Amino acid sequence: MPNRLDRETSPYLLQHADNPVDWWPWSPEAFEEARRRNVPVLLSVGYASCHWCHVMAHESFEDERVAAYLNEHFVPVKVDREERPDVDAVYMEAVQAATGQGGWPMTVFLTADAEPFYFGTYFPPEPRHGMPSFHQVLEGVAAAWSDRPDEVAEVAGRIVHDLTQRSLAHGGEGLPGEPELAQALLGLTREYDEKHGGFGGAPKFPPSMIIEFLLRHHARTGAKGALDMAADTCAAMAMGGMYDQLGGGFARYSVDREWVVPHFEKMLYDNALLCRAYAHLWRSTGSELARRVALETADFMVRELRTPEGGFASALDADSEDGAGRHVEGAYYVWTPEQLREVLGDQDAAFAAEHFGVTEQGTFEEGASVLRLARTGTVVDAGRAADVRAKLLAARELRPRPGRDDKVVAAWNGLAIAALAETGAYFGRPDLIERATEAADLLVRVHMGDVARLTRTSKDGRTGGHAGVLEDYGDVAEGFLALAAVTGEGVWLEFAGFLLDIVLQHFTGEGGQLYDTADDAEKLIRRPQDPTDSATPAGWTAAAGALLSYAAYTGSRAHRTAAEGALGVVKALGPRVPRFIGWGLAVAEALLDGPREVAVAGPVGGALHRTALLGRAPGAVVAAGETAGTEFPLLADRPMVGGAPTAYVCRHFVCDAPTTDREALARSLGSSPSGD
């Protein structure tokens, strides 16, 4: 019999709707039930494409014996971290403080007042590698709750007190300037992996936001080292196993420092951020590799993640069925030499094995290899490689596909809108701009409703009912602003303004601080507040970037002041932990450059407009239209000169002399008119 999760919209929760565990969604009713029964709450947090979440579900939550004990002694609550990032953030902070590490699935035991007192992540079904079994953990917690209630209450109270007493040093005084950005670059240089690209060791995550900072820093200062780190890292990722050499798109991270073996789940946010980063790398260098990867990644998002409603699904699973009917990680993507021969025949299989690094020993598990491009320096027959790739892709399409998390997350769709709009504009792909516009329409129609307050998620056109958090507002506004620049439609500027006004009213604290949840959102044991970028831009830095761009478009002092206040955190953290505030550093580069405001009085999509979009000036905003009207304040009183399309390059609405010359405009924005 289904439990209470069968009425939810989250695919992750729905995966658990038929468990024998009597799951509750996160709700006041669940905690009232724990209080009524005088039992603790088991909070289990994960997400639909999480490999170890699936493992623990199969091992423990589908086990009748474990479920019976769990139901008798606890109120079990299941949370999708992608749907409730606020709940995830608060308790992950407690887990990391208590254990020194975190991850998913996250397992936390709570009192009926939602106070945590015992923590963990994955627990195996039997004792293993010094870890207790999940059943042992349940028995120990139940015994402590029954036999030592005062001790449990004391621990819970102390943990909550420690969490609520933490204060965030957000920079406060002053803005990040040249010294801080130079120190950040030096810090990145020290952590840079000169042999393999990227930063740090294994596991190695795609540093998309750091790449954006490096490209902007190079554009502003001419620092060659910054460009080299960005370009070499992008090349290493694109040629490695983390990039899908057949279908395009990136896996979540590499388990090794050489980019050989990925963790195979594919996330919308990674692909959106990397698509945009590679497009910007092409804009800076004219790299054909960057162009190919940007377009293939855009096509992957549209082909594999687009939903019938026009939005983009969250992720593809790491796991799928292999030839023996087992549900294992990477089965859809890996190849053995024998499988190559079955599809290609002996000669082409030998060519493919050398080209894609497929060995008899294998680079993954059970003799299988992850496809990657070998860096041999030898000349490859491009036509033959394309033919082999097409045949392997067609054969792979016949394999059982990974599952898809169809939930639409507002923030990640905002990132996708920005990436698709710009990639479409750069490479003459109006279909990508159309897909971006359709996703934006969905966000307005379904996620914003009638009051311009965002809901976090939707599925099948139905909202998930959870309030949007700061990253939703910042990333969706960023997407709308990019769409406004590309399409010349001022309505997207207006929608961005609606969202950013909510940020000013409900997410902003004293001295420029920002909070991850609105002041009228559900109250948790701590109001989450994290300015550091991880796999995606922090809500804090995403909002700062959108506020700065909106101020450049409109001349709004209030939005500029809010952006400057938020960027105090970059002054504090940039020199110390640059890897974890990459988007904040990129926004700071835009601030130092102005950012520049480009008004193009002329046809949208025309040569001058395209030249403006290809400008490398950090964070430059572009407004285009043949009639100077009120939709873009930047266009007001800036007409065409002599009846010809005319560009005005400004800072703080003070402009240089207008120009009708593409080359002159390109030079003023640090680029060539063709984008090479």
From TrEMBL:
Taxonomic source organism: Streptomyces atratus
Coiled-coil stretches noted in the UniProt entry, renumbered to this chain: none
CDD domains cross-referenced by the UniProt entry: SSP411
Protein name: Spermatogenesis-associated protein 20-like TRX domain-containing protein
Any GO BP annotation: carbohydrate metabolic process
Domain Spermatogenesis-associated protein 20-like TRX: 3-163
PANTHER family, A to Z: SPERMATOGENESIS-ASSOCIATED PROTEIN 20
InterPro entries given in the database record: 6-hairpin_glycosidase_sf, 6hp_glycosidase-like_sf, Ssp411, Ssp411-like_TRX, Thioredoxin-like_sf
